[in-house]
User: Fold non-specific serine/threonine protein kinase from Trebonia kvetii.
Amino acid sequence: MAVAGTTVLGGRYKLLAVLGTGGMATVWRARDEMLSRDVAVKVLNPQHAADAEFLDRFEGEARHAAAVSHPRLVTVFDCGVESGTPFIVMELVAGRTLRQVLDEAGMLPPGRAVAIAAAVCEGLEAAHAAGLVHRDITPANIVLNGGEVKVLDFGIARADGTRAATAAGTVLGTVAYLSPEQASGRPADPRSDLYSLGCVLFEMLTGRPPFTADSAVGLAYRQVHDDPGLPSAWRPGLPASLDQVIARLLAKDPSSRPPTAAAARAGLLSVFSPADGVQNGGTAVLPVTPGTVPGTPRRGWRPRPSEAALGAALAASLIALMVVLLTGGQGGGHPVTASGSPPASLAARPAATGTGSSPAQPETTLSPVAAAAATLVGDLKEGVTDGQVAPQAGQNLFNQLQQLLFQSPGQNPQQVQQQYSQLVQVFTQDKSKGQVTGQAATSLSSAISALGAALGTL
Assistant:
């Protein structure tokens, strides 16, 4: 167990203080005693360190990320394994995360929001050129320091050409910013990062991400199926050209998004002139003064305790279920960011309003199918955690549910019914084998029936 001021990793990195903790790792402030400088050290949590495949991916990607150097990316210095626990050593970045800025300011001036997004594109362009896909572009993974913008945490990145690690069906990333292909269990590519950036830009402009829901499974469903609408519906006065750029970033089909981060950056810079806050070749990122942006009701906003607790916000989600399956029923939590802080709450958040009369608010109510699926996943996770559902049975049902919920648009009713029948068949077989028992068998049977009834409304 790491102890501040005592534990030394790799014979040179003395751990000083915890910067943050998440579901995947703990991030420490540390002293590199060889080079006499402070660094950030990300130490993988024990349950993940025990997974040989995960361990190989962690080390391989750390070395791959260390080969990429760019002013917009946090530098990876070193990695290693100490007493069976892997760690990665990174640049210690000063400043505040975009998550912290948005929690205080609510939304940003359009020029500043575009400037930040354009800067992120610079970093992504360098990473993508090196074969890295970030897979978790969120406000918590973007740090602002004066006029500087840096992208944090390639901790769940994957080098192109390598197969996705961990069990089939695992979803990596933060659901409110997750691309449809990632939510569907398909491979991520550079255009997936652009979708996530589109979600971040939408939130910077409106004070809310494109989609909200009461559970992560509901959010994933909406990422795949729903139209987010235009930012100007939430914040009147935004230029139509900016609406168009964001709509392209948020296209469901990756081929309809900008082909590269450089193309996305060019589109952003075409919206605003340098005088509006964007300078060619760089960014003019001005400090936010809380309360100066019209209609920002979230000054001093903090997540409710139930939202902030790690794992609780994902209690009825596909991601939490997969964490339980992969860790043998030991629970789970959010992916960790390089700063160590958990991502933003996945529950619905207050919508920002503009000055003057309020526009009609876009619909955020979950469909009956998504609501029923969220209940089913919650019951399934509880059953696995309580030992009434065998991990393999949970995996089987998870896979069937994912196929049912996240297929490509345009399925006919017969295809939907066939996939639902397969879900029922898998549940019945596992129950007859004694892999689903007790109260879980009753609650899951009821939840599957409710899902079937909801599917009949399609």
